[in-house]
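Lab notebook page, bench 4
Experiment: in silico fold of construct C2
Operator: M.H.
Input chain length: 217 residues
Purpose: comparison with the prior construct
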Amino acid sequence: MILDLSATNISKGYNGNQVLKGCDFLFDNIGIYVLTGANGCGKSTFLRLCALIESPDSGEINYRAEGTVLPKDLALKRRITLVLPKVGVFNTTVFRNVSYGLGIRGIKGRKAAVKVNDALEFVGLADKKDQNGLTLSSGETQRLGIARALVIEPDMLFLDEPTASVDQKNTAIIEDIILRMKREGRATVIITTHDKEQAARLADSLLLMHDGKISRG
């Protein structure tokens, strides 16, 4: 079931600093939305609000399925996920890192193994599955984070600066992963980046955050 996401008149501030001011946008198509803007303009804050990790000071974040507003409960939160620029890695194998989200959902055994292997194959880490996750390069670690997100099959995937501090080779791999996700209709993907060339390569919808608000780029 496809999810629509609406942000309506969102405001958010920290320690007296207003980051988002009357911010509105509707995400209602499967594809890739790329949110650009200067560092510190509120892109990451907006993603955290949309991922229901934080709450706005005012305004509303709503998810709808077939026109019906969904409660912000565990069931909804399990349909959305956010991958941060610095992925937290457990001191265990790559395979077990990726299987974590399945385990807390009660999916184990052969069914979980098939899903994990598929996710690792998708991000090009199948040959690393028995390696300790802490030994991966920064680019491989980011791909691990994406695999951990994909394995739970989210309807809405947020990627906050997915190629920040990543070498050129892994940047190209990650961009290819994102484009293949779109081609296969895996999820609606919302990305932040400060790289205008990357935004142009990836975006179905190019967005600009400025002055605490979002406009089409």
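Observations: Residues 4-216 form a domain with the Rossmann fold fold (CATH 3.40.50.300). The chain has a mean pLDDT of 94.
Next step: discuss at group meeting.
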